[in-house]
Automatic annotation (TrEMBL):
<keyword id="KW-0234">DNA repair</keyword>
<dbReference type="InterPro" id="IPR051536">
    <property type="entry name" value="UDG_Type-4/5"/>
</dbReference>
<dbReference type="InterPro" id="IPR005122">
    <property type="entry name" value="Uracil-DNA_glycosylase-like"/>
</dbReference>
<feature type="domain" description="Uracil-DNA glycosylase-like">
    <location>
        <begin position="86"/>
        <end position="271"/>
    </location>
</feature>
<feature type="region of interest" description="Disordered">
    <location>
        <begin position="1"/>
        <end position="27"/>
    </location>
</feature>
<protein>
    <recommendedName>
        <fullName>Type-5 uracil-DNA glycosylase</fullName>
    </recommendedName>
</protein>
<dbReference type="Pfam" id="PF03167">
    <property type="entry name" value="UDG"/>
</dbReference>
<keyword id="KW-0411">Iron-sulfur</keyword>
<dbReference type="InterPro" id="IPR044147">
    <property type="entry name" value="UdgB-like"/>
</dbReference>
<keyword id="KW-0408">Iron</keyword>
<keyword id="KW-0479">Metal-binding</keyword>
<dbReference type="InterPro" id="IPR036895">
    <property type="entry name" value="Uracil-DNA_glycosylase-like_sf"/>
</dbReference>
<keyword id="KW-0227">DNA damage</keyword>
<comment type="similarity">
    <text>Belongs to the uracil-DNA glycosylase (UDG) superfamily. Type 5 (UDGb) family.</text>
</comment>
<keyword id="KW-0378">Hydrolase</keyword>
<keyword id="KW-0004">4Fe-4S</keyword>
Length: 280
């Protein structure tokens, strides 16, 4: 095994390309600290930095760092990010794409959500074809990819074992997503949920951001659209803004793409619709 594969996990602020955190970035160690640090972040860049160093969920911290040290053989000579994967993309997006969590050898390796795994291959190729990305591939955080009018985030910011976060881990992580959506809500016109987990998670977050959400919660499905408007208690920055549309999308997982449950045409049609809804 190479020396790189035997290297220890690299802590924040030690030279990773485009690392949003610094040695003094505050670190959350429990759910209460996540909520407090998310709420007190002065702006989106600082929020992203705080997301990237969170250590609130012991099981997820242990797993992501174990994967980052042991590594998959095909990536043995590559450094792993091994930390929470923050949101990224346009700071004033018209479209917000929300997924489940980073892949152990994708986002947990590259430091960018959906980057370096098969799901990302399908996702970014579709975004490029419909004009929402400047290139069709996403292989590492410094590869020049730029999203156009679009931002991405995960409901859970750490790679979970077996891709299954617990309800407690999801709830602990939600304030990061809630504050991120708060920061961009004034510009967003469409929220694309990749998979049922993301679909279920965004409704309380959108309610917290100031939107009137339907009850009962709408059922998830590919292409399902739900339009929601700011509530009567929405913050000033949302007052008078147009409604947004929450759009369901089957996750481009290997299981879905290999079986034909998700096709290139399905993704292109959905993101073309998102682009239209967002007036891009």
């Amino acid at each position: 095994m190479s020396d790189a594969a035997n290297a220890p996990y690299v802590p924040p602020g030690t030279g990773w390309p485009d690392d949003p955190a610094e040695p003094g970035t505050p670190v959350a160690h429990d759910a209460g600290q996540v909520a407090a640090l998310a709420a007190s972040a002065p702006d989106l860049p600082e929020l992203v930095a705080r997301q990237s160093v969170c250590r609130a969920c012991d099981r997820l911290v242990a797993w992501r760092e174990k994967v980052a040290v042991e590594r998959r053989r095909m990536f043995a000579d590559e450094p792993y990010w091994g930390r929470p994967v923050p949101g990224w993309g346009d700071p004033e997006p018209r479209i917000m794409v929300v997924g489940l969590a980073p892949a152990a050898h994708g986002g947990n390796r590259t430091g960018r959500i959906f980057t370096g795994d098969r799901s990302g291959d399908w996702l970014f190729a579709s975004l490029y074809r419909v004009g929402l990305a400047n290139q069709p591939t996403s292989v590492r955080a410094d590869d020049g990819l730029r999203l156009i009018g679009t931002r991405m985030a995960a409901t859970v910011r750490c790679a979970p074992p077996d891709n299954k976060p617990t309800p407690a881990e999801r709830d602990t992580c939600v304030p990061w997503l809630a504050r991120e959506i708060d920061e961009v809500a004034a510009s967003v016109r469409c929220v694309v949920c990749l998979g049922g987990f993301a679909w279920q998670s965004v409704w309380p977050v959108l309610k917290q951001a100031g939107y009137a959400v339907p009850r009962p919660r709408p059922k998830f499905g590919h292409g399902v659209e739900v339009e929601i408007a700011p509530s009567g208690t929405a913050p000033a920055e949302l007052s008078g803004t147009a409604p947004i549309t929450v759009l369901g999308c089957y996750h481009p997982s290997q299981q879905n793409t290999f079986t034909g449950r998700v096709t290139e045409a399905m993704l292109d049609t959905l993101f073309t619709r998102a682009k239209h809804l967002a007036d891009l």
